[in-house]
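Hi, here's the filled form for the chain we discussed.

Project: internal
Contact: R.S.
Residues: 375
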Amino acid sequence: MIGAFATWRNEPITFAQTDTSGTTVQAANYLTMMPNREGGLFSNYVQIGLFAEKTGATTSTYGPQWSELGENGGVTRAITQGAGGNAPDRTNHTYMLLRQSGGDQWDVLYDFNNVGTTTGQLPVPRGSANRLDIGLEVMGPQHLSIPRIDSRVQYMAENKTWYRAATEDVAQITSLPKCNDGGTAPYCFTAQLAGGTSFEQWSTSKPGATQLRTSPPTDTAPKNRSFTDAVPKVLNGVNQAALHRCLAEAPDTCLSTVPGLARCVRTVQLCNAAAASTASRPASSQRSSMVAAEDIRQRAAVSFGVPVHRVQVNSDPGRSSTDVHSEAGPVWTVESSAATHGLERRDRTFDGFRATYSASTGRLLHACWGQMCAR
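And the returned structure, exactly as it came back:
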């Protein structure tokens, strides 16, 4: 396969309002492509998805990001382009990975616009099988609650046509017991595969502890985002009004129903004018004051598995020097030369890391570990 395409809503995630210092508490609903499987479970891969992290007793961050794991390290980047990506408002969003026609690297698209390109993926012998994953991953399950997330996925074959996987080719894995099969909250998942002979939808959720379940979100109706005359009627062959309607109602059908979209995506042009014209602001994680440097240092030490005394943080928040969005505002940058597992779980260690966090929200904007920091 040479492409993967997934959709789901920005569902609200509830975190415990308690101090969990020293513990990483986060949730991710993701699409992962493993292009070259010669390394087995430890192969390089590309991942894009929605990530939420508890950053303090009463604070958290929420938004899309993408990551690449290479032979000698990895990199993670927040996606700050797009409309409403950081709002848990149940709006639909799309996630896509496309192999470049002229090489072995992959383009990363969010809401049908390009947001990045890999640099460290291995060549894929034509005709060899790729591995494609979608799913929900949780760290610190006792401290969070996740409502049902309905994930849909398609893949692009070598003939540049999109397909749904045959159900018989889909494997289901749950690392915690199922809630209706011996598992009890908060240490269980609900999971259901839908579809006939073709895979259609993977629905997952995770109940929280009792005190979390008693305070559900007060407004769970999907929001409709505005569509103004400032957006062109047609952009790079894509009917923008049709795209707007499709994203709101049935995003997994947009490639076949929106005039011009499939061609625009294949050529990795700007396809979604509304998303390109709006910076994705972290409204759900705004603070009234700057995040303390020591808080960032402690979080980074836990996330990267490095002793806190081996982590350095710049003395004053400055502008980001990485390729994150220009509207990121003041940032804290931390780094260490200590051995680290990075933001991955391949049972490997690398020399050092560098990470940039928003000084106003605490959101991770960019991180690299190992030799990927030199790219």
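Let me know if anything looks off before we file it.
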